[in-house]
Design brief:
heterodimer, A: 116 residues, 4 helices, B: 538 residues, mainly alpha, two-stranded antiparallel ribbon, 1% strand
Amino acid sequence: MSLLFALLVGTLTATGVFLTLRAQTFPVVLGLTLLSYAVNLFLFGMGRLASNAAAVLGAQTQYADPLPQALVLTAIVIAFAMTAFVIVLALKTRAELGNDHVDGTTDDAQKDDSSQ
Amino acid sequence: MTGLFTSPIWPLHWLALPVFLPVFSAALLILLHRRRIRLQRIVSGSSVAVLLAVVVALLVSGAGNQHLVYPMGDWPAPFGIVWVYDRLAGLMLLLTAGLAAISFIYTVATDEDRRGPHFHALFQAQLFGLNGAFLTGDVFNLFVFFEVLLLASYGLMLHGGGARRSRAGLHYMVINLIGSTLFLFAVGALYGVLGTLNIADLAQKLGQAPVQDYGIIAAASLLLFVVFAIKAAAFPLYLWLPATYAETSAPVAALFAIMTKVGLYAMLRVHGTLFDAHTAPAAFVNLISPWQIWLGILTLVMATLGVLAAQNLRRQVAYLILASVGTLMIALGMRTEAALSAALYYWIHTTVLSAGFFLLADMIRRGRTNGDDWASAPPITRMVLIGSLFFVYALAMSGLPPLTGFVGKILILSAALDQPLRTPIFATILITSLLAVIALARSGTRLFYRVDQPVTGMPPAAGPNRLGWIAVMSPILIAVLMVIAANPLSSWLDQTSAQINATPDYIHAVLNPPTMNADVLAFPAHPEHAATPTGAHQ
């Protein structure tokens, strides 16, 4: 299970990094989302992987560490808000710059840059 | 939980006010966003005023002379989240509140808050995040407050709109989201190995960690260093800063002058506590500091080249902020008490004056027909006074006598005298100061001496109003006071840096709070983490 889990986190991270380095805003947003999935799984795994263990004290002799679960919950909420915001911002730059390149590099924008 | 309102810790609740006051004002301001801007200004302004008063009172009362620990919800330290108030946190809170006041006055003076509905709510949310980040003693709580202050800063940065601002905002946001992801990876790895998130407890557990875990701990700490370096805008992670600061509105840029310092503060708090020479294993003590010195030198060099090459005044000021980050990183990397005290003096100087310089650049930009780039323009209203202010700011920022930049750099250089790396440090700081003087002299010449004939028939642009003058001049007033009171101030800062270096006291204060109830239920720790260090895990 640990090996599968580690491979999953690694694949998600690698895909996320690859997509984040693209030049269009949509792949970048997807990449950030995949990175946040990867980090959520990673945090969860830091409580050690165990099957048949609830995060409840006293009910069983074997129980899961509840703190990483709380951390993951917080991280999910924050990542959700950030993703919503970055999508809106990406749409806004698409509308204002006329293309979805992360630098907005149309001919106009380059002229704009050189005149700064 | 009954202990919460019994007398011994009631005065401690004052510590929570710098965090809770802005968040409640922000909530109130969201409800008021359709009401008149005047009402919003009254709410936001009184919140800033009360915040400033509380923070000054906390600092003057000497509450930070010991580490004051505020356990959230009365949960004792390693289990609950604690906020820790000491001299350093008090100083940071005062800087934040002071910048907020200056920025608020300039906002009102220029009606910047009329350009969109939620300026004041975002402004208060920003203060909430900043104050929380300065007070917290828990790494994950630090992450949460980073997210709060970043989310508010995205909104503030984009306030007013415009294509170039959106583009700079997108870059700023994407790099910080990546930073947040790295932060979580680092925090997760630290928790996985050490089994705690409280900074003091982390430092204690680090001392007992088995040697085979050192690699993971070092990797996680260096990852955290990368995250804080993104926030502080250190080389090579600074590329987002000049565009962001130059494209956003002036009061927001002035408030953002504290944002790079949050990254430096986090380095000081987290890495300083974890890798303190008294408590940490020898392998970790010098893990971060050589990186700090060399990256600081590189940041300073690159920033000064940026200052020379900048095509307008706002971008030049943004690069000057970057240069100050480099100088501060060098001073923090030396890790002696004298260097830390010097760094704190320079820290106050650069935060306050670069905020004021942004406001002055905006004042110049508003007065000129073609903005703040170097093309010649007709004379601006009140040219002599604005030009004199520019001269004073340029003196202070480039580190010439008699203002604070000079004193700060002297203190840092004299602290560097006994460092093994003193030659590169001296060369970099002195040469970059000279280059900054040249660049600023050239900017002043271009902005104030190369003047076109006034266009006949065009009414001159209205000069700045009284509030604008107050906002631009008060940083200079603070700088003058800092020079006059340099001796008491630096002896206070010496005690502050001694307190920062007394990490065992910090750990003791956090983990053994005097008010802890004897009947608090002790939690059974998770078996993975409760075991003795040698058998901590498989």
